[in-house]
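Cont'd.
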Amino acid sequence: QKEVEQNSGPLSVPEGAIASLNCTYSDRVSQSFFWYRQYSGKSPELIMSIYSNGDKEDGRFTAQLNKASQYVSLLIRDSQPSDSATYLCAAVFWGTASKLTFGTGTRLQVTL
Amino acid sequence: DAGVIQSPRHEVTEMGQEVTLRCKPISGHDYLFWYRQTMMRGLELLIYFNNNVPIDDSGMPEDRFSAKMPNASFSTLKIQPSEPRDSAVYFCASSWEGNYGYTFGSGTRLTVV
């Protein structure tokens, strides 16, 4: 079974700090990776995607992908209380076109 | 655009009853996904459709679950008979070919007592 794994948290960081969220996946041939954010009681929304090894930056968010080690991470710089949410890692595995497999999510708490 | 519309928002039903969840995808999206979310198992894909045709239903837990998409603007997920372990939030999402930025509906919180 192809899987995406995350630590459920909660991960607590002070306001202004860097939050680091990690995700590992089971399939060495995975194609694409995504980070979704889900506020409590709301639906998930896409915040980042990454397809190749290395870093991808978008504002305060940086996604990092290391296919050899089979992990993907999300860094949030200058964390704000509004970043408090559950962050879901998702992957498209080879041979499962158009189908996202999600991890169980990591809950982030940004404290004042 | 009103986004993906799901109904009802909340459903409380007794064990053994039939439950029908409804979804209207975004116009022009040709993929529709049904997910179930629980604390223990996270977001699980139940079934997805492409151009109204079911492509992969391997996530449907058992024969009690069925899904249909009679046209491009409507889909249903039915549970008959319902059981307490079916209690979860059910999300519908839609997208188009090659796009993984799914648009999720607001979800239906199902409670089976």
